[in-house]
Amino acid sequence: xxxxxxxxxxxxxxxxxxxxxxxxGVPPPPAPAPPAGGMVESAVYIRGHRFASxxxxxxxxxxxxxxxxxxxxxxxxxxxxxxxxxLAREFRLHDLAVEDAINAHQRPKLERYGETLFVVLRAAxxxxxxxxxxxxxxxxxxxxxxxxxxxxxxxPDLAAxxxxxxxxxxxxxxxxxxxxxxxxxxxxxxYAPVVAGLENDIDEIETQVFGGDPNASxxxxxxxxxxxxxxxxxxxxxxxxxxxxxxxxxxxxxxxxRRYLRDVTDHLTQVVxxxxxxxHLLQNILxxxxxxxxxxxxxxxxxxxxxxxxxxxxxxxxxxxAAILFAPTLIGTVYGMNFVHMPELNWRFGYLxxxxxxxxxxxxxxLVFKRRGWL
Length: 375
Description:
The chain has helices spanning 57-66, 81-91, 95-103, 158-166, 169-172, 176-210, 216-248, 255-335, 350-371, and strands at residues 38-46, 49-52, 70-77, 109-113, 116-127, 132-143, 146-151. It is of the alpha+beta class. It has a seven-stranded mixed β-sheet with strand order 2-1-3-7-6-5-4, sandwiched between helices.
């Protein structure tokens, strides 16, 4: 919020132009789609109005030299080393900052090199189709009379920031700091859809966990990684905004910009708090999922144990009857060998004796197995 006027997504920082009122200076051309790499757009502003739209870096430098009090806003998308070197030579950028801008893969930070401010931001975008969070890197060089933005991804939409600022000349007239704060607001506002997407994913994960989905653990882990990455992108911005607020008085920052900075800080604080809550919630969900999986495994083990016990009982019965039936088979086999000199073959009561012996052995085995609970 600047002077009580919120930087609205659909409008400028404050007063809107009437339908019969035309802006002063050259009207901004439509923002082109990002090329494969290089300069996306360059504009030179005087007192908040676009004075020129140079087609290259050399022309931008010339416009700045010809007009006192002019400010250049150069937007680059994955530039090559020659372009970065040209900017570093023209605006006297520090070698360390230039190296960071070339290599990318930096953590969010704010560093001051003399009169030049170097800012690294991590923008985020939620992909609804893949249900994933995409992160991109944005580098800014803020100095007297110039703003250089170096994007290494599709987000944030700096063309929209430029269009909104150009509809509020008094705000843009406050110089490079106004551009910096507008970009910070765009990055922080871009976190809101990401928070909503993550919240929806967490709700789906809770359904998966209590529904017994075996893929829940993998998704919890993946979402936890996204939340941690989001924390690394958003949390350092709080320190950066605090540093900007602390140095606002020393560098004579306009009071409206200070109020606007506090508003961005409030929004970012809400985002960070919600993301911290997501991380704790995911840890709890992971614990609950591990408990449910353990319970399910215990149930399966109990089922297997019960099945094994039942199988053992059946095996005991089969073995018992097999032993009982084996006894008469053994006796019958012995007396069926037909040897000549067998004492019982010529005995008058041999047949009866064999039958009684079979019954006695079978009955004895039956009683033994019955007493042991096998039958």
